[in-house]
Amino acid sequence: MTMLxxxxxxxxxxxxxxxxxxxxxxxxxxxxALQTTLDDLAENxxxxxxxxxxxxKAFCAGHDLKQMTAMRQAEDxxxxxxxxxxxxxxxxxxxxxxxxxPVIAQVHGIATAAGCQLVATCDMAVAxxxxxxxxxxxxxxxxxxxxxxxxxxxxxxxxxxxxLTTGDFIDAARARELGLINRVAPEHELAxxxxxxxxxxxxxxxxxxxxxxxxxxxxxxxxxxQAYAYTGDVMVENMLHRDTEEGISAFLEKRDPGWxx
Length: 261
Known about the structure:
The chain is α/β, with parallel strands linked by helices. It folds into two domains: 4-202, Alpha-Beta Complex (2-enoyl-CoA Hydratase, Chain A, domain 1); 206-252, Lyase 2-enoyl-coa Hydratase, Chain  A, domain 2. It is built from eleven helices and nine strands. Helix 1 (28-42) links the parallel strand 2 and strand 3. Helix 1 (28-42) packs parallel to helix 3. The chain is globular, with a radius of gyration of 19 Å. The mean pLDDT is 94.
């Protein structure tokens, strides 16, 4: 069985986590597959947008608790194994945001704990009606501290803290209201709606989106004056690109641009 399936539709790559019997948990194997595949796609100029989906009845149920329990019971168990696990998971999350291509989560069923973190980490998310989102580790005595990082950067802090401390789920409508996801679609239209968004973005000038995504995340942590200085330099870089010149000329001449990239 392939842990992570990859399909291409023009400039859009769809990654489907394929461990439905484990609710697509972020096992050692799944994390390794995600890291390798995302690294490969980041170097593929033909891919302009990536969709991340899950097979079966859930998008992702978080870390693999059976594997974590086995780590704890092993003779050489200790902090080092768990630290390694969370570092590898964090590396996958960081890779998603450092990729030149936008990554869209296509979410259904449930996205809980590190699965909710995965949704929050993706650049955009489309969810099926009826999807539930939670950071529920507190219910088993494990506060979702690493998922908290992405969640608290997506939704207001009081709502994030409530989710983290109660372990309650929110539905897709509430997730959209809070800013965790972008769109909600009927389940039978989920893939179509996600592909529609991906295709719209893929039609833009790839280098502009690449420059813009990097700048978006870089400026978030800067003071306002520093962010304006930095993004001014980014605009200069973008303006001097030959395809941007073609895009502006095409707009003024009311024709489609003839981009080379």
